Structures are given as structure tokens and as C-alpha cells.
Amino acid sequence: MLGDKNLKADICHARMKGYLFELNDDGWKLSKDIVVYPKNVTQYLHSDLKDGYVKTLAYFAMEYSSGHTKKINQIFTQWGRALGLTVINKKSILDFKSYLGKNQENRLKIIKNFILKWHELGHFGVEVSSVQLLNKLYIRSAICGDAVKRRNPDCGPFDQREMESILKKIHALNDKGKISEDTYCFLLLLIYTGRRTQQISSIRIKDIVKVEDNVFINIPKVKQRQNFRSEFSSVEISDFLYEKLTELSQSVLSIVEKQIGAKVNENIGRELPLFINKKELAFCSEEGMLIAKIESDFLHSKNRGITKRIDNLFRINPVFSARTDKPIKVNPARFRYTLGSELARKGASIHTIAKALDHSSVACSGIYIKNHADNASEIDKRMDVFFEPLSKLFLGVEPETNANRFIELMRSTFHVAQNESSNTHCKNCRFFESWGGMYE
After folding, report:
1. E-strand spans in 292-377?
2. In order of start, what are the domains of the chain with their CATH numbers?
3. Rounded to whole angstroms, how far apart are CA atoms 122 and 124?
4. Which are the contacts of 270, defined by CB distance < 8 A and separation ≥ 6?
5. Which residues pair with 220 in a beta bridge?
6. How many CB atoms lie within 10 A of CB 232?
7. Is the separation of the CB atoms in 30 and 69 below 8 Å?
8. pLDDT tens digit string along 126-155?
9. Cα–Cα nearest to 233, from 259, 207, 210, 254
């Protein structure tokens, strides 16, 4: 059995509503953006493993996001191509872990649940030794936000001058009619909300909301086992952005009405994507077909198409960086990094940053605070007060005066007792012990 969602024969429902696939197909289309090719893996598998792999992958295609399923298939492709797979046991897992090395070891963590489910479903190919190993094996997590930590000028956050230049450029292009309305609005949402491309492409007209003088947008969240558009975060937006998004909404309605040759029902119109896929829309000749399409992600613009448009826009209309004297490499992720870094610069807490970027935990949000350049400068300033008398001590400058200054600084900062009978304790640590007498 593949799971509760399997149909007759080998036809299965993908997690994304409206998509079907057959086990024996070369490619499984699981969403508007994702096609998974099991044959990329099965060509490297021993014949006895093929059936188990395909059926377990089908289970994940039905229960998990299309992106997660594709990632699993990619990792198994890497495993099979590099080492071959006749069986999954303790040795083969340790061999793959060694092959991946420290930098890619987290890939094993991604497929861990897949291997355990393969064994749980009872399909041949996974030995008990591998299950026992995976349940106790330590696997390093991915290095989070390396580009942010290094403030990489090519793929990290934009600095303030770069961000201003990019905004100035897209506004100028819009004024001259050299940027499409939907690309302009998509860029504005990337800049001001910091959300992922997949989240913004999933927005619908009804998600733009105005309540009295307050305007905001409901942005869908994206998680592995969550249904399409089932959970949202509400983000307040400016009147200017609200105006532009409303204009785009009217344009979408006009395009759809022209396509079906009739006025769109108001309730149907609210369900239309804000960023519509015109190629898919071309298959809708009347409202009934439109209704069938809007139940899923069919009519939403493809993420890779949006990314390509943004890339082409800045390739044709480059914006130069003052810190590199080269054209700025613009991609959606960098706007996200920039928002997180800007919030950190302004002193936002890790929880505020996590909420602003829709992180499911604060683990990744910490990189913006821990590694922000301004933080290093602030640490230096605060440590100067300690190092200044200490350095003079080493140089022999007024040793007694500077020794007393350093001792007083340590005592006042760390609540150091002046004598051993004193019972002063650090408020933050129950294991604190007095340093009294250390400098005498």
C-alpha cells in the first residue's frame, strides 16, 4: 500500500490538489513548478530496490511538498551515481556520509525519514542495520546563511547604497514603461516583505486587504506537509504598495475577462492569482474551466519564470555597486537577506526577525544578529574600556594606576567580591564563585 491517497492501479494524487501521476511515468508533475524523475535514481539501483524506491517516493509525493520530494530524488541520484546502490544497510549509509563530507552531510538528514519510511512500508531494500544506525547517528545540520555571515557582495545582503540604487532603477524603469506591471509589483513585494518567491507567487487578489485606514497583505506560508494556501502571515504595507497591487489586480481581471469573453463573477475574481500564468490561462475558454483551474496552483506564475524575468531585467538594465564597481547580481533571495540584516542593524530581536521572514524557528534568524558587521564594531567599543588599561600595564605605563583601573572594571562589571568573606554573587549564574584576593 502506498498510503490512504492511492487510486486504482498505479495512479496517485500528488500533495498539490489537481495533479495526478502514474508510478511508471518517466516524470511526475507534482505542482506548477516541480517535475520529479524517478528514473534518474532507478537507473543506478539494483533491480530489487527499484520497486521499493518508487513506491516510497510516491508516498512522499502524496504526503509532502513537491519541493521536498524533488530534493529527496536529487540526493538519491547523487548517491546512486557516485557509489551505486545494491542495498541500503549500515555500510552503504556510512559510505555515503563519508562521500558527502562535512559540508554536505546534512543531505543525509534530508533523506533519513525517507529511508525509515521505506523500511516501515515493508518494501524490500532497507536492512534493519540501517534503521538502527540512522536512529542513533549524529548528522551535522546545514550551515545556515553563509552568504549573510560573510556579507558576500555577490550573493549576500545588499548594502544601503545598493538597495537605494535598485529601488531608484526599478521606479525609473516603471515610469518609462520598460518593466512589466507584474514584475514591478513582484520586486516591490520582495523588497518590502522579504518573503520567498514561492510565497509571493502564491498570493491571490483576495489577499490584498484594506480595513479602514489600515492596508495589509496576507502571504501564504510554505511548509513540507502543509496544504497549498492553508496558513498565512499578515504583513502591513504602505499606501503606495497597496495602490500598485490594486492596479495589478484590475489588470489581471481585465486579462481574464478578455480571455473568457465575459465578465468574471466577483467571488471567482477574488480567487484569481495576483501573478497569473498567461500560458495556462490560454487553456480557459469559459468560466467553468477557470473555476476548475483556480482550485489549485495551475494559474499561478511559475517561480523559475519570475526569477528569469528579474535576472534578464537587471542584465539589460544593470545597476552598479559602489563597493565592487561591478553590476549588482540581483536575485530574490538577496532581498530577503537584506531585510533580515536591516532589522538586525536597527536592533530587532531574533524573534522579530524570525516573524518578519516567516522562519519556522529562530535557528536561521540568529545569523543576522550574530554576524552583523555593526555588532562587531559595538563589541570592539565595549571591550576597549578593558583593553586600554591592560595594554598600558604591558607597556609599563603607570602600572599601579592602570592595575587598579583594570581591577575596578572587572569588579564592577562581573560583581567580583573585594574580600573572601563577601557573599556577592553574579545574578546570572548560580555557579559563580568570588575572585576576592586574586589580585592581592
Report:
1. none
2. 11-134 (no CATH), 147-362 (1.10.443.10), 372-440 (no CATH)
3. 6
4. 204, 205, 206
5. 232
6. 16
7. yes
8. 999 999 999 999 998 776 665 555 567 788
9. 207
DSSP single-letter state for residue 210: E
Rounded Cα–Cα distance for residues 272 and 250 (Å):
11
- Rounded to the nearest angstrom, the gap between the alpha carbon of residue 158 and the centroid of all alpha carbons in its chain is 17
Rounded CA gap, 39 and 240, in Å? 49
Grid cell of 435 as nine digits = 575572585
Residue 313: which pLDDT band, with cuts at 50, 70 and 90? very high
Long-range contacts of 103-109 (CB under 8 A, 24+ apart): 103/143, 105/139, 105/140, 106/139, 106/140, 106/141, 106/142, 107/75, 107/78, 108/139, 109/139, 109/140, 109/141
Other Cβ atoms less than 10 A from the Cβ of 10: the count is 15
- The tens digit of pLDDT for each residue in 324-349 reads 899 999 999 899 888 888 888 777 77
pLDDT in tens, 11-26: 899 999 999 999 999 9
3 state SS for 20-52: EEECCCCCEECCCCCEECCHHHHCCECHHHHHH
Q: Which three cell numbers stand for residue 252?
A: 489581471
Distance CA 197, CA 230 (A): 17
CA distances from 46 to 35, 49, 98, 215, 356 (A): 24, 6, 21, 58, 47
Cβ atoms 66, 33 nearer than 8 A = yes
pTM: 0.75
Whether the Cβ atoms of residue 106 and residue 117 lie closer than 8 Å to each other: no
Choose among 42, 49, 116, 107: nearest CA to 81.
42
As a whole number, the mean pLDDT across the chain is 85
